[in-house]
Every structure is written in structure tokens, then in C-alpha cells.
Amino acid sequence: MTNFLRKYRPFVSAGIEEAIVYRANFLLFALGNTLGAFVTYFLWKAVFQSSTNSSLSGFTFPEMVLYIFLSFFTGILTSSDGSSSVGDEVKDGSIAMRILKPISFTANYFYEEIGSKLIDVGVLAVPLFGGILIYQIVGTGTPVLNLGNLLLYFFSATVAYLINFYFNICFSFTAFFFRNLWGSNVLKNALVIFMSGSLVPLAFFPPVLQNVLKVLPFSSLLYTPVMLYLGKYSMQQTISVLLLQIFWLIFFIFLAKIIWHFAIKHLSIQGG
Amino acid sequence: MSMIEVSNLTKDFRKTIKSPGLVGAFKSLIKPKYETFEAVKNLSFEVPKGEILGFIGANGAGKSTTIKMLTGILTPTSGYCRINDKIPQEDRQNYVKDIGVVFGQRTQLWWDLPLRETYSVLKEIYNVPDKNFYKRMDFLNEVLDLNDFITSPVRTLSLGQRMRADIAASLLHNPKVLFLDEPTIGLDVSVKDKIRHAIEQINQEEQTTIILTTHDLGDIELLCNRVFMIDHGQEVFDGTIKQLKNRFGHIREIEFELVNAEDANRLNFSQFGSAIEYSQNEKNVRVKFDSSKVSVPDVIRLTLSQVDVQDISVKDADIEDIVRRIFRKEAAEHD
Amino acid sequence: MRRVLHLEKIFISQYLKQTMEYKADFIVGVLGVLLNQVLNLIFLQVIFSQVPKLAGWSLQQIVFIYGFALIPKGLDHLFFDNLWIVGQKLVRKGEFDKYLTRPINPLFHVLVETFQVDAFGELLVGVILLVMSSATVHWTLLKVILFIVSIPFATAIYTALKIGTSAAAFWMKKSNTITYLFYMFNDFAKYPVSIFNHLIRWIISFVIPFAFTAFYPASYFLTGKNVLFNLGGLVVISVVFLFISIKIWNKGISSYESAGS
Ligand SMILES: Nc1ncnc2c1ncn2[C@@H]1O[C@H](COP(=O)(O)OP(=O)(O)O)[C@@H](O)[C@H]1O
Ligand SMILES: [Mg+2]
Fold it and tell me: Known InterPro entries for this protein (chain C) (predicted)?
């Protein structure tokens, strides 16, 4: 055993070192993204200060603060970009290597992503989620910390991650048709950010639009877990939003399978 | 006056020292430790106009680093080079107008564009007048056979095609000096041949001064009148191929064709010690030895006394052997 | 100068041809960028459906500031986006070699090599917003001239920050995360600085001075006040930052180590 360790130690420490450098970069990126959340925070602060009402579309200022930072954190928690390399791989032809491997295409990406995902979330959870909790405990007028809601949040966020993973797999298959995923990625991200409620809580939209957005799969990606955390749903609503999430998860798992079979038949790999 | 003048050229790289373990990894992230590594040490040489200089050495000897200093990409730690009467680092933009550079492992072509487009962009970058450009393209087409793939996107070219295209790109503006860093790396024999001929032709027609680094001694033997060999960043040899062979070329090779292949078992050269080695392929036995320690007649006499021989041929020293031998010796000294 | 423009033209057309190799993707991308901006506007609309004024500014005025912010950002994005690649991989992989063996200024070469057409999304939305909200500005001939003059200076602040931070790669090998961190501060520029706390106000005014790319100049056009600080500051800051970043860049080039191959 010690022999084994001695033998592999150089590899392990090289791996750790690489991981640390990679994480350092990741943290700087995350810090950059946090700035966006702060802009939104100051904006809403000004809005609440300029308004005569203490609650807007059902949100008090402390709730809004929680919503802003929690949706930012949830966005990181549920993000999935394991399959984002599909575009490049189609472009340079190396996708063939993946297809040749005797592992399921999706599993391949899942295992690649899940390890780094856990570390990223673990590292960010401390300052971000820690900050959220402290604000909730120390801040005045904040919603009371509720263990049930916390558990519901983590369950719902996990489902949201899986939906996002399969959704992105489905989406990344469009690379087979567009050849390069940059453009469709920009379009997708714009839509997802908006429709998932990460820009503005869906409650601020006109009722008709709200109802449509709440049924679409995007609200399941972010809005649902965050609202559960804030305890905005009744028991009945909670059950129905969770069922909706599970429905979308199953839907995208099947869709991914169908598209995969379709794509493999029509696969044309560019020279490289 | 020489085209290229290199004087005491030295390049140190700063390398981060990695401390082992998790704590070490954190430490080197926060406060990295460095050590200097001398990739090129005190090189001095001159190249007259119109010469093709073969720049050789083992992997990691410092060839590319030297080329990068000569082309103005890297700033030397000390020493200088003056090429075409200019110091590359001082007057880079002006200097590079008159040089061409090819790095075998890289490309300067526009990846997603048809090859032809790369040339029209380079034409603008180097400000080549229309008339010269078309004449030049015709010439390069002829020498390097670009026509078959000039309309294909670069990403679809084979390695050999890409290399030809890259060489053409470096020659579009009719440079006075051409730097070729491993231009035949990874290519098959017929493409190598085409590229060697092209280099030869360009050198002859334009009196282009060429520095060529390579692993392939065929390149050197066909193209270079002079070789400059470095190892661990230092000069180990500078002279003609003939001198190289004289200095290090005591290796001789004799090939015997035996009457019976089984006779080879009876061969025994142990009295000459480690100065000799042989290999067998059916009826043919190749004997290699150091002619400064063992004489040719002695080897023949001993062989004839042991086996029946049909035919004998004595070969001249092969440069590949020479280089391999020098490197092996160097490596042994460094171990 | 004519040669500079000529080369710029050549590079742009080549880049477009390159992009057009992936036509469908390209068109979808431009739509995406456009949509992104439209959705951001809806966000503003949502905010102003709650309050008539934000920190003393009307929706029209905020729209003007927002639109103004998009113009220099879009111009920098359109012309100078290749700088990202310097810190991401050109230096680390030694691909920067190429720029040093060409007879044009390497910085210029890097800058003109790409032409990021998706920036038209930002520019288009920016222009539309400015036109929509231009009635709130009391335009005079002087203001029109100052407006036109202020745009290139504001753009230069973006570009200077990108040049300076991507030049860090010459020492660090990789610096795009630093560029990103700096760049993300531009989000603060789109709104009145008075909504932010003192620390952030100070940072975006003098350290990573994006406030001068939008809010300060825009507030001069809106109120006609403080021309010396709002526009004079813009010119001074932009010249100083550009000067410093080019110095860093040039120093970086002589420390460039290429990459072993
Ligand atoms: N950019 C660099 N940074 C650090 N070390 C380098 C760099 N480039 C080359 N080296 C080191 O310098 C030595 C010489 O490299 P190089 O000139 O590429 O050798 P060659 O071309 O002869 O194979 C090698 O040990 C290599 O690892
Ligand atoms: Mg080399």
C-alpha cells in the first residue's frame, strides 16, 4: 500500500497542483460574476429606496437580497457545461473519439463534469452560501431560516442540475447541425437567464407571461429551488412544482436519447 | 560581410520550482520559487550571404530557442545577433520585412480560410506590390506544387500540404534570410524530397541565406555545406560535413554476404572488445566499428577466417551514426 | 495612417469570411446578442414599473445612460476583442510568436485580427436607446461635438484595461481571468454612480474607471453640469490609462518567453 502511494504520489500531487491553479482561475471568474450580482443588489436597493411601498410584487427588500444572491449561487450549483465542448469537438473532428468509446455518450460527459463540479461548489459554498446564511440570521426583517425549506431547496436544486445537464446535452447536439456552437450558445444563454428568473423574479412579470414561464422547463432550473428556499410556496404548490421538475427531468432524459440516435445516424465529421 | 553575425548569444529561462505535496502546491501558487535554466550558452558564429547552415542537435539542445532569438521573438539574456545589418530586438518591425520564418510544429496560416486567402492577407501585411506577388506565387506554385489545394480551407490540408503552404507563406515577400525550424518533421519521404528540392532551388535562385534546424540528417547531407552542432545550449561542432566526418567519423561499416546464413553463429569478434558490433539479416552481416581502434584489414581477415564469404562491401561513415555517437557519449557523460 | 486603415479593412473582410464558414451559427449568434440586450431592457422596464424615478433619475435618463454605455463597450468589443485570446492562450502556447515575426506593430496586429460581429447587437441596441431617449437631452451644437469626441475616449478606456491586463500574460503566461475580473466592473457603468456605496464608487471612478465610459459623460449631456469633471476627466483618464497600458504591453513583449515546443 505504501509502495503504491509512493509510486503514484507524483501523479497525485501534479494533479492537485493543476487543480489548484485551475481553481484559482475559477475563483477569479466566479468573483467577476459576483460583481453582476452586486450591481443587481444596488439597483434593487435604489428601487426599494425610491419606492413608497415596502414590498414589491410580494418581495420585501431582505427577501429580494436573498433572491439575488441565492439565485446567483443556484446558478452556479445547477450549471452544467460538461457538454459545452461538443461544439469544438465537432469542429475539429475529435468527437469521433468519443463515439468510438464503449461508454454511453452522456455518462462520458457526466463523469467528466461531476468531480470538478463538487469541488467548485464546495469552494464557493463557503463564502456565498455562508454569506447568505449569515445575512439571514443577522439581518433585520429577513425570512426565518427554515430547515424544511433548506432541504427542499437542496433536493430541488439537485433535480435542477440534472435537468440542466440533460437539457445541455440535448442542446449541444445542435452542434451536429450548426457545426459551431458559439452562436446558438449565446442565444440559449440569453433565453435561459431570462426565463429561469435569474435576471428578475418571474413574479414581476405580467400574470399571463408568468403563467407561461412557470410551466416551461426554465423555471425548474432556478426559480423553483430559490422560491422553495424563501418559503414562498404553499404545501400544494410545493408538490406541484416538484412534480413539474421531475416531469421535465424525465422528458429531457428521453429527448437526449432520441436525439442521440438521430444524430449518430446523420453524423458528418468535418475534415481535421 | 556576413549576413548573420551571432556573438556570445545566451538565453536563460526562468522556471518555477514545484515543491511537492499539497502544501507545496499552495505555496507555489502564492509565492512561486524560480530557478534559472540556461537554454543557450555563449553561441558565436557567422553565416555568409547565400549559405545554407545546418543547425543540428538533440531534442532540447536549444535550437528553437536560438532561432527565436535570431528572429526577434525572444530577447537574449546577453550577447547579441546582427542579421542583415540589423539587431532584431531593436528594430524588429523593420528587420522582419526581410526574413522568413517557418516553425514546423506551428502554422501561420489562417485556419478556417482557403489557403489562397492567407497569401492575399500576407501580401498586404508585407506590402508586396501586385506584380511581384503574382510572379512570386507562380514561382512558389511551381516549386512547392500548391495548386492542388490552394482553394481548400487550411484545416483540411494534410501535414505535408500544410508544411509546403507554410514554407510558401514565409517566402512570399522574397526574404533575404530564411529560418526553417524542423521543416520536415513528421513528413513522409516523398514530401521531404519535394521540400528539400524547393529549399535548394530557392537558395540557388535568390541567393537566400538559410538556417535550417533538423533532426533528419538526410536534410543536412543534401542541403548544407556547413553544419553547426549544439548540445545543452553549447557549441560542439562548427564546420563542413566533411570535417565533421573526419573529426568524428571513425565509424566504418563493412557488409559481408555469407554463403550460409547459419555460419553467422560462428562469428566471434570478442578480441576487439567494445569497439565493434555487428548485426545479421539472413545472409548479410553488418559489422560496425571504430576505425581508429580496429583496422579494416583486421576485421576482414578475422571474418574470413571464421566463415565462408560470398561478397564484401565497405561503407563510408554515415552522418547519422556520427551524430548519434556524439550524443550518446555526451549523454553518458551527463548521467 | 492609410496603410493602417487598409490593413484593418483587409483583416475585417478576412475575418468575416472566416465567420461565414459557419453561417447558420453566426446568424443565430447575432440574434442571441441582440436578444440579450432586449431582455436587459425588459429588466429595466420591470424596475421602472415599480418606481417612477431611480435615485432621482427618470426612466428616460437611465435609458440614455444605458444606451450611452453600450456604444463604447460595443465598439471595443467589435474591434479589439482579440485581446482576450492573448491572455487565454496566445502567450501560453507560444502562438504569439507569429505576431513578432510580422512587419507590423504586434499590438496593432492583435487588435485588428478579429472583428467581433456580435457586437452589432450591443451597438444597435445602444443607438436605438440613445435615439429613443435623446429628447431628454437639451442638445446644443457644442454637446453634439462633445458627444462625438467622447465616444473614442470612452472606448479607449475599455481597450486600455484589456491591453494592460492581457499584457500580464507575458509574465504570468495566463491572465484572461484577471481581464475578466476587471472587465466585469463595466456592469456598474450602466447606472448612476449614486446608487452604489462609496468603495464601489471610488473603484469605478479611478481604479477601474468604467464610470467614465458611461455615467459621467452621459450625465453631462443630461444635465449640462460639471463638464470639466465629466468630460475632462474622461479625456484625462482615458489618455493616462492607455499610455500606461501600452507601456506595460511593450515591457511585456521584451519579457515574452514563447513556449518550448
Ligand atoms: N519558453 C520556455 N520556457 C522555459 N523553458 C523553455 C522554453 N522554451 C524552451 N525551453 C527549454 O529550453 C531548452 C531548449 O529548448 P529548445 O530550444 O526548444 O530545444 P530544441 O529546439 O533544440 O529541441 C529545453 O530544455 C526546453 O525545455
Ligand atoms: Mg525545437
Answer: ABC-2_transporter-like
On whether both B151 and B202 belong to a single domain, the answer is: yes
For B296, the grid coordinates are 579494416
| Cβ–Cβ gap C256/B121 under 8 Å | no
| Closest-CA residue of chain B to C107 | B93
Q: Answer whether C213's CB lies under 8 Å from C193's CB.
A: no
Joined together, the cell numbers standing for residue A12 give 497525485
Q: Is residue B330 part of a domain?
A: no
Q: Do both B76 and B215 map to the same domain? A: yes
B309-315 β-sheet, strand order:
B276-281, B284-290, B251-258, B309-315
Contacts of A94 in chain B (CB under 8 A): none
Q: Decide the pairing of beta strands B177-181 and B99-103.
A: parallel
Q: Which of B63-67, B239-243, C14-18 has the highest mean pLDDT?
A: B63-67
CA B326 to chain centroid: 16
ipTM field:
0.87
**Cβ within 8 Å, pair B153-C257:** no
- Helices within C97-175 (DSSP H only): 97-100, 106-113, 119-133, 141-167, 169-172
Q: What is the pLDDT along chain C (261 residues), one digit of tens a residue?
A: 788 888 888 888 888 877 777 777 778 888 888 888 888 888 888 888 888 888 889 999 999 999 999 999 999 999 999 999 999 889 999 999 999 999 999 999 999 888 888 788 889 989 999 999 999 999 999 999 999 999 999 999 999 999 999 999 999 888 989 999 999 999 998 899 999 999 999 999 999 999 999 999 999 999 998 999 999 999 999 999 999 999 999 999 999 999 876
Q: Which of C9, C14, C101 to mutate to test the interface with B (most CBs of B within 10 A)?
A: C101
Whether residue A17 and residue B155 make contact (CB cut-off 8 A), yes or no, is no
Domain count, chain B: 2
Cβ of B228: how many Cβ atoms within 10 Å? 23
**Closest-lying ligand 1 atom to the alpha carbon of residue B67:** 17
The CA distance from A55 to C228, in Å, is 41
Of A17, A92, A270, the CB nearest to B18: A17
**Same-domain check for residues B163 and B256:** no
Segments forming the whole domain that contains residue B266: 251-316
Residues B284 and B213 in one domain: no
At residue B335, the pLDDT reads 44
Mutation to probe ligand 1, out of B12, B13, B234 (largest number of atoms < 8 A from CB): B13
Q: Find the ligand nearest to B39 CA.
A: 1
Atom of ligand 1 nearest to the CA of C257: 1
| Same domain as B193, residue B229 | yes
CA distance A5 to chain C (A): 31
On whether residue B209 sits in a domain, the answer given is yes
Closest Cα in chain B, distance from residue A92 (Å): 9
Q: Which atom of ligand 1 is nearest to the CA of B66?
A: 17
pLDDT, tens digit, for every residue of A92-117? Answer: 666 666 666 666 667 777 777 777 78
Cα–Cα distance measured from residue B51 to residue B227, given in angstroms and rounded to the nearest whole number = 11
Same-domain pairing of B230 and B307: no
C151-207 confidence digits (pLDDT tens): 999 999 999 999 999 999 999 888 989 999 999 999 998 899 999 999 999 999 999
